[in-house]
Design brief:
CATH class of the largest domain: Mainly Alpha
Shape: globular
Strand content: 25-35%
Number of domains: 6
Distance between the termini: 48 Å
CATH topology of the largest domain: Glycosyltransferase
CATH architecture of the largest domain: Alpha/alpha barrel
Number of strands: 46
Number of helices: 19
Structural class: alpha+beta
Radius of gyration: 30 Å
């Protein structure tokens, strides 16, 4: 069955700007091993007649079911098209046609905009006024209406009304883009809001990102001095004619009840200034002021690309209390991003002030210090006409606690049912889950997702509360894989990457933040987002179009690096953030001890490799050869400069070792040495990390992939500072910017940079999903077409873990559990039209069962072989439940309290083991011995031990050898 057929990631895509949109679908089947062998896709015109389709692929023999580009006649603007898909399985059996879906084009050419940009006449209303504008137009429709669409945008942010009703649930439209180069417009279906006769359009226009002032204190950046709106309504009549109502100088303007509203500081609202019915057709506009047309550009307009910002959840306060300072405070129970809505009955002129904060101070008072200059404050003046409900229109806050002043009756306690937190972010579909036996880790996963929601409000911001909230490239690139696992982020990053490309400098340099409002550029690991992010989007969604679109930008960034300094294959010049906020930094420094030129050259190699791989995907043979050669040279230069021939890193930091391992800079002959040294650095630090923004996202991967998964799990479960569960132990409900944002004594890290909602360190989620739960992709086949399942279990610290991801092909699941320390069960779900490699550590084919049967007789299992690691299976689609005994091999490898490890820790045992390890012992046995006790086995002096101890060791070695 063909299901979930989408165009541009949406089943009903209104107002798209793609001239060759891409289609995808999923296949559902009860039969294991189902593969698509052929497909047929057809697109009908606005009449929906599939008997005479606009485009019909006919039967195409192919497994392709995602990102199929339209290749029919040129699409017309403002037109709805319908589409269906069907498929054949590997046996040649056809499916039925899918349900019919549709997409509708927007205005595909800038010359189709007849509307004018309008703003209040400056002779009547001060253009520098902080108050929001109300703009309206009354008009008549004299025929029976067939359909109607509005195309709208703003220099600022806007709310749009037709006949007094909001046209959508979208907030803060048109979003934040690189306005001088790209400005999104939105398309709204408004047929049901119009009527024959008198009608009206209303626009509520605020500053938003356009005029709020952005950047750091004292350096506020504004895109323009005038808020303005651009609206074009097209009404199709039943008789085939059309009416167009556009913004022009016939519109009227007035000041609205929002007296002040900015991104950082909040909103001031005077309900006494509300104008009832102002967006309706019968409103008396005689007192309203004229508008003027502005000469702003329309050639920068782009159809909406990102998911719209909306309220996605409502949270009620869990408590109210009075602080030692006497403040009345609400506790939402969750650090969230959005706005507070409240309902109040109060005399006219009553002033209610809400001040938002993330945490309480050591003294129990609400803490605003980390907001810096951002006020995050909402002021409301009641009109005194019964129950009044209000939430800010053009601002958002990052908060858990709300100080409430002036609310009637607060002396008897704030009424919890009068308040609600409305969670706001880009309305992405959730696609990922993770759950395990440790509730603290489950809280960490929740914190990761809340951090993403809070910071994915139209752009991937670093923090949502203080006077920053910027699209930092470094944060985005380290977190993007975790982000795309948890939420459908293709439109989100497509829009942001187009802004990155637009902001890229002529010499290929890339700003620190996108959109760029601070001016800095070209730091390694930050600007590498130009390469890493489009490649990661391709890996998750198979979107070759976006990869091709960004490819010149990717190349330009690598060529920028190549041009720096006098050494072509090293990057040793310029400013770099380095391993930002690493704990091995010098006193009073934010930059870690790992040399910045090492970090820069490592990322130089990584980006060159990705550009090579992207060129191969795009069929750009010469580019693939050129960047493959560049990559080899940079890797060799890195080794010559930062590593000894025997694999000792010149910089004895955790991050230096992590980068050498993760970016394949350490050759196979020395990887073991680098991994061992990394493990020892962590052990010497009491099994704690010292890594910052650069090293932390890869740390656990570097350990797990090189024989030290036990150390990685211990790091995950570390509750003392620094560690992921330290913040959980302190009650965190999002990811912190600093490992010790709140210290053990309850005091805070410095006010100058201490966000309690900063998603970067949440990148550990990627490792949790891929290694702990074991759900990974084959990097050579994008979008999880070929899946890799290899749970690494949990060193007896975890008894189960499971994860799922809704991929382009369907839902994938990987989960495992251990019963009584003996029976291992692994559950796998593979969607149709996909295959998977499954590696079950410690399993043997002879004893492995699926659904109660030995695997050799099970449908859907294409092959099964034993390997030194365990059983390796090739399987087709379907749900599988594998079971096997947790034998001696598993216990020795994964139980930190096992007999063997205890013996190896004994000096006498170590000495005898050193004498008796056969020189020919290789593979898993020697790897295991090295992993468990490198120093004890290979460095301690020989000594005697009991025969019983020695025989036990030999028995254990025989079991794994």
């Amino acid at each position: 069955m063909v299901k979930d057929v989408t165009c541009e990631y949406r089943s009903e895509a209104l107002g798209i700007g793609a001239e060759r949109p891409q289609f995808s679908w999923r296949i559902e089947s009860d039969r294991r091993g189902t593969q698509q062998s052929a497909y047929r896709l057809r697109v009908a015109g606005s009449d929906g007649d599939f008997g005479s389709p606009l485009w019909d692929t006919g039967r195409v023999d192919s497994e392709q079911s995602i990102q199929l580009s339209y290749d029919g006649p040129k699409l017309a603007s403002r037109t709805r098209y319908y589409y269906q898909a069907m498929a054949w399985n590997q046996s040649g059996d056809p499916s039925d046609w899918s349900e019919t879906s549709w997409f509708e084009t927007g205005l595909l050419g800038s010359d189709e905009w007849t509307a004018r940009w309008i703003t209040p006449d400056p002779r009547e209303i001060d253009p520098q006024s902080e108050a929001s504008y109300l703009l309206r137009k009354g008009f008549a429709l004299d025929k029976e209406i067939a359909s109607a669409r509005i195309y709208a945008t703003a220099a600022g942010v806007y709310e749009l009304f037709v006949n007094g009703e909001p046209v959508s649930e979208d907030l803060l439209a048109p979003g934040w883009t690189s306005y001088s180069s790209r400005l999104q417009y939105q398309t709204y279906e408004v047929t049901g809001l119009l009527r024959q006769g008198s009608n009206a359009i209303g626009i509520h226009l605020g500053d938003g990102w356009y005029r709020s002032g952005l950047g750091f204190e004292g350096k506020n950046f504004r895109y323009g001095e005038h808020r303005a709106a651009l609206v074009q309504l097209h009404v199709a009549y039943q008789d085939g004619t059309e009416a167009v109502i556009s913004t022009d100088d016939s519109w009227k303007a007035q000041i609205g009840p929002v007296l002040y509203s900015t991104i950082y500081h909040g909103e001031t609202y005077d309900a006494r200034r509300e104008l009832t019915g102002w967006a309706g057709p019968d409103f008396d506009e005689d007192e309203w002021k004229p508008v003027e047309a502005l000469d702003l550009k329309t050639d920068v307009l782009a159809a909406q690309e990102n998911w719209p910002t909306r309220v996605t959840e409502t949270i009620r306060p869990v408590a109210s209390f009075v602080t030692p300072a006497g403040d009345h405070v609400l506790d939402l129970g969750q650090n969230m991003v959005g706005r507070m809505r409240f309902t109040v009955t109060a005399p006219a002129g009553t002033s209610i002030v809400l001040s938002h904060a993330e945490v309480l101070g050591q003294d129990g008072n609400i803490y605003f210090g980390n907001l810096r200059s951002a006020r995050q404050q909402v002021s409301y003046t009641a009109k005194g006409e019964g129950a009044e409900s209000y939430a800010p229109h053009f601002s958002f806050m990052g908060f858990r606690y709300v100080k409430v002043e002036g609310f009637p009756g607060a002396e008897n306690g704030l009424p919890l049912d009068a308040f609600a937190g409305e969670v706001m972010h880009s309305d992405m579909e959730p696609t990922g889950t993770f759950e395990c036996s440790d509730e603290r880790v489950n809280r960490l996963q929740a914190n990761i997702k809340w951090g993403q929601r809070g910071n994915f409000l139209d752009v991937p911001t670093d923090c949502p509360q203080r006077d920053e909230r910027l699209g930092w490239t470094g944060d985005a690139q380290v977190f993007i894989s975790t982000a795309l696992f948890n939420y459908q982020g293709a439109p989100f990053f497509t829009k942001w990457l187009r802004d990155l490309k637009a902001e890229q400098h002529a010499d290929g340099g890339v700003p620190f933040v996108i959109p760029d409002v601070i001016g800095g550029a070209n730091s390694a690991a930050w600007s590498d987002a130009a390469v890493i992010c489009p490649w990661t989007v391709y890996q998750y969604y198979g979107d070759r179009r976006l990869l091709a679109e960004q490819f010149e930008s990717m190349k330009a960034w690598v060529e920028f690096i190549r041009a720096q300094g006098e050494q072509e294959y090293l990057w040793t010049t310029g400013f770099h953030f380095g391993d930002w906020l690493a704990l091995d930094a010098k006193e009073n420094s934010y930059i870690g001890a790992t040399p910045r030129e090492l970090v820069a050259t490592a990322y130089y190699a990584y980006s060159a490799r990705i550009v090579r791989d992207a060129a191969q995907v795009l069929g750009r043979t010469e580019d693939a050869r050129r960047y493959g050669e560049l990559h080899r040279h940079v890797v060799q230069a890195f080794r010559d400069e930062f590593m000894s021939p025997n694999g000792r890193m010149t910089a004895p930091t955790q991050t230096a070792h992590v980068l050498a391992l993760m970016f394949d800079l350490a050759g196979e002959q020395v990887r073991g040495r680098v991994a061992r040294d990394l493990n020892e650095l962590i052990a010497e630090n009491g099994c704690h990390l010292t890594t910052g923004f650069v090293g932390t996202p890869y740390l656990c991967f570097a350990l797990s992939q090189n024989g030290y998964h036990d150390t990685a799990v211990k790091l995950l479960l570390q509750t003392s500072y620094p560690g992921w569960l330290y913040s959980v132990s302190k009650g965190a409900t999002t990811i912190w910017e600093h490992w010790d944002s709140i210290k053990d004594d309850g005091s805070f890290w410095s006010d100058d940079m201490n966000s309690f909602n900063h998603y970067s360190y949440g990148a550990v989620g990627d490792w949790m999903y891929r290694k702990v739960a074991g759900l990974d992709m084959d990097a050579a086949v994008p979008a999880f077409k070929r899946i890799r399942i290899e749970p690494m279990f949990g060193m007896n610290k975890l008894t189960h873990a499971r994860t799922s991801h809704l991929s382009m092909y369907g839902r994938i699941e990987s989960g495992w559990g251990i019963e009584n320390g003996k029976q291992i069960e692994v559950t796998v779900r593979i969607p149709a039209n996909c295959t998977a490699e499954v590696i079950l550590r410690g399993a043997a084919i002879a004893d492995l069962k699926e659904g109660g049967q030995l695997v050799g007789t099970v449908e859907g299992i294409r092959s099964a072989v034993d390997t030194p690691t365990g059983a390796k299976l090739e399987i087709g689609s379907g749900t599988y439940r594998f079971a096997y005994e947790n034998g001696e091999i598993f216990r020795n490898r994964y139980n930190a309290d096992s007999k063997l490890e205890e013996l190896l820790a004994d000096e006498a045992a170590a000495g005898v083991l050193q004498r008796h390890i056969p020189q020919a012992l290789t593979g898993p046995a020697i790897h295991f011995v090295k992993k468990l006790s490198v120093q004890q086995v290979f460095e301690n002096p020989m000594s005697a031990m009991t025969e019983e101890q020695f025989n036990a060791i030999l028995s254990d070695l025989a079991a794994i050898g």
